[in-house]
Amino acid sequence: MIIDNSKLDGLLNVKAEKEQLTEILNKSKKLERLSLKEVALLLNVEDKASLEQIFEAARNLKNEIYGKRVVIFAPLYISNLCKNECLYCAFKASNKGMKRRALNQEEIAKETLFLLKTGQKRILLVSGEAYPGEGLEYVIESIKTVYSVQDGKNNIRRLNVNIAPLDIPDFKRLKEAEIGTFQLFQETYHEPTYKKLHVSGPKADYNYRLTNMDRAFTAGIDDVGIGILFGLYDYKYEVLALMQHIEHLEKEFGMGPHTVSVPRLEPATGSDIASSPPYPVSDDDFKKIIAVLRLAVPYTGIILSTRETAGMRQEAMDLGVSQLSAGSRTNPGGYSEEEGLEQFSLGDHRSLDEVVSDICQKGYIPSFCTACYRLGRTGLDFMEYAKPGDIKKKCLPNAIFTFQEYLDDYASAKTRDAGLKMIAYELSLMPEELRVKTENSLNLIKEGKRDLFV
Predict the structure, then answer these.
(1) ∠ at Cα 351 (349, 355), nearest 5°?
(2) For residues 215 and 238, what is the distance between their CA atoms, to the nearest angstrom?
(3) What is residue 416's three-state secondary structure?
(4) Model's pTM, two decimal places?
(5) CATH code for the structural domain at 64-383
(6) pLDDT digits over 2-44, tens only?
(7) 183-192 burial string, b = 16+ CB within 10 Å, else e?
(8) Burial class (CB in 10 A: 0-12, 13-18, 19+), 4
(9) Which of 33, 30, 56 is nearest to 45 (CA)?
(10) What's the helix, strand, coil split of the chain in %, to 5?
């Protein structure tokens, strides 16, 4: 049993005494994973003073592990064909107002080139849960196409995927296609709610979706991302169930997810539920969710999409978010064309350059790094670097290298000025040996070299 509802029911209303809260936050300072009960105690904190303690602990932990860097990527929707009837999604099969489309390989190349010309280097490939032709073969060909496109010296260096659940043989084929992270959200872990909202189609099978990451790990994919669509059910239950899912994966495979995504339900064309979430999550509760997750799973990346406003995304960076999408479109052909209904409403419509500029103003280094994927630092190997804190010695220089590339090749004058100041500041804080090595590589980048990493 992955989700133990009897255990969760006993934790939904536990309250932390002041001494317990202090003990939990002290534990987080040691960068240790929190227990299920400790997570529940934090989720049930309501008073502002205690919440601020949680937020401050999350800020400190985020800085300790990730430093002042935020990874940037963009989604690439290749198809909105779907067999499922998910009541909250614009792509649902019954939505007659949705113009259905699966991009051909030429169109996928065009979309990729558009993203490259803005400076993107990391892509999340997204598709509705139905494919033209021979199914997974379409996805694999699309991956090859994305990797083949060049814009001068720029290319997509790592592609993650968010597609339908697979069986083990198909996961092995996907691994051979050299993906980065395989991403799939349970949406809601509450089975009665899940069945109510997923009326028909393959996605109606709760258990097949829930055990998807077991099959991925069994097939040899050791870098996975999970998530919750907040607003479908009680957020406290969802976070605790997510933690049970993580504990299950750690017990069975020795490792949990590399990333956790935290989207909130946003309006979607053709969906009344999306416009009026059954369990709306306020901004304050959303910030608590992010902070608690950061404390609960210190070394797991937290992803925030452009569903959220620029203001919320800025706050979320401090509280624990380590990856942001930027300049996003959520419909096939959405980058190179103007038409098409998106999967959901966006809260942040800024361009990549505008997002990068604001990240710099916030005191962070935008990172387009893909080194860990390409050097095999995933799964258990990543944790060997992360837990002693050694990963920072690699992540910060790699972030700076990819950021310098962006500044030289794509940034506006305003963003370039702000970015160079941030790089100079980060270099000034480095130990001398690391600073000298980083500066030597930066000089090579300024001379025209690309794709340097450690």
Answers:
(1) 95
(2) 22
(3) helix
(4) 0.94
(5) 3.20.20.70
(6) 999 999 999 999 998 888 999 999 998 888 889 999 999 999 9
(7) bbbbbbbbee
(8) middle
(9) 56
(10) 50, 10, 40
